[in-house]
Amino acid sequence: MMRQREGGGRTRSLAWLSIASLVALTIASVVVGFGWLPSAQADFSAVSLWDSICRAAGVPSAWVRQGSRQDTPAVASNVILLPEMARTAAPAAVGRGATLALNCTMCHGALGMSRSDAPNLAGQYPEVIIKQMEDYKSGKRGSPIMAALSKNLSADDIKDLAAYYASLPKARTAPTTYDETLPALVRVGDPMRNIAPCISCHGGVDQKLGAPWLEGMPKNYLVQQMQLFKTGERRNDAQLQMRNVVRAMTADEIDAVATFYARKGEPAGE
User: Fold this and answer.
1) Is the residue at 113 inside a domain?
2) Rounded to two decimals, what is the model's pTM?
3) Which domain holds residue 28?
4) What pLDDT digit, counting tens, does each position of 71-99 carry?
5) C-alpha–C-alpha distance, residues 58 and 52, integer Å
6) How many CA atoms lie within 13 A of 71 on its CB side?
7) Are 190 and 248 in contact (CB under 8 A)?
8) How many CB atoms lie within 10 A of CB 54?
9) Ramachandran angles phi, psi of 24, nearest 5°
10) What are residue 85's phi and psi, to 5 degrees?
11) Given 29, 44, 68, which residue is the final one in a domain?
């Protein structure tokens, strides 16, 4: 009996010793992996835990900076998207918005359909217009013209403008639906390059709150905006969603996607 107790005690001691050794090894691995190894690289600077993880894994510093520091503003947008922003507004708000929109007709057209390369606003989702106007006003999205026009608009003014444009007749085709004939990037994206399908956010499979309607937009406008996202000059996309997608796209792919959405707004037969 005494020998059995002694044997059981030794077993428990060995078990606790194994656990203590494992804990010590784990702590040492974390210190070496996320502390000593990254800091041993001459160009390392501890900006975030993600930086440390990437550098411990041997990721080049240029890759880390591209995705987490140089390319990312502290706050992409001050706007918090809420479901109520997408609700249909009262007629009075639409009327007030129509008056305010008189300052917008030069670029966006008398009824929200542009004859230039400015975006069409007729029937656009209200939360999209609210977000973009607020981003212009705060400087999160750059445009000298839009910054000047939005500067003196109140939050209620912006909501009224959004209500007006959302109420206009939709001079555009029905939303893009899933179809085998759609361009590959629009339909399924490219998972190997981390490119999500366009229809997963912009309608077709799902319309993500704050993602704009693209059908019928001027092609040059779509190309320009994707290029700005690609270079990081436009940064008001939350969580780098558009930047991460477009960064991997080639110029031909950007042109093809823009051509597809622009043609979706053309009358049948053209």
Assistant:
1) yes
2) 0.72
3) 2-68
4) 445 578 999 999 999 999 999 999 999 99
5) 10
6) 21
7) yes
8) 18
9) -60, -40
10) -70, -20
11) 68
